[in-house]
Amino acid sequence: MIIAQEKPTIATVTKTPVTLEAYRAIAETSQERYEYCHGEMILMPGGTATHSAIAINISVFLGFLLRDRDFRLYNSDLRLWIPEYNCGTYTDLMVVNHEPEFNGDRKDEILNPLFIVEVLSPATEAYDRGDKFRKYRSLPSFCEYLLVSQTEPYIEQYFRLAQSDRWQLQTYDQLSQIILLESLNVELPLLEIYRRVSFAAVSQIG
To answer: CB pairs under 8 A, 24+ apart, for 193-196?
Structure first.
């Protein structure tokens, strides 16, 4: 299945005009998470306990599988810089092949993710699927994307076809299924992604 991209926006966000230098200074000390894009600082919504648990499950499992291979895993502490859009953002998880490439002399902005995971939330789901994915695709190194629901066992896997700008979609909705991550050549079971996750608790929160 070849996807066609839309351009949705983030739901209910606060945008503040700011210089890049001021944004970086705020981001270094703020306990809140901000994205930067074309002169605006955008406050990103906080996550839930379920969101955090799923992100950690994936990070721990992949970290174990890749521990002896030449990949680097980074969580949401490290900012991703997207030059084409003059944008700094955060992923729930990204994996780099070999050594990270940093933005100039900065050590907090990375340029070369291979694989990115976003755990979806109501406030950011449209953005993660639309504009954010479009920005990610401008990075030459980026070739695989996992969108993970936190309200049900449902995952969308996008991967770039070899020597092409076309992306293919594969979906998973059974806990018994296993995802073959194309870029990492490892298998990621849905049971590991959703380990100790209660969907009943999530639906009550929603």
So the answer is: 193/54, 193/57, 193/58, 193/61, 193/148, 193/155, 194/54, 194/57, 194/153, 195/57, 196/53, 196/57
In terms of DSSP bridges, do strands 144-148 and 109-110 run parallel, antiparallel, or are they unpaired?
A: unpaired
> pTM to 2 decimals?
0.89
Domain 47-205 in CATH 3.30.390.30? The answer is no
Instruction: Indicate the domain borders of the chain.
Output: 47-205
* Rounded average pLDDT over 123-144: 95
* Per-residue pLDDT tens over the stretch 48-106: 999 999 999 999 999 999 999 999 999 999 999 999 999 999 999 999 999 999 999 99
d(CA 150, CA 63): 21
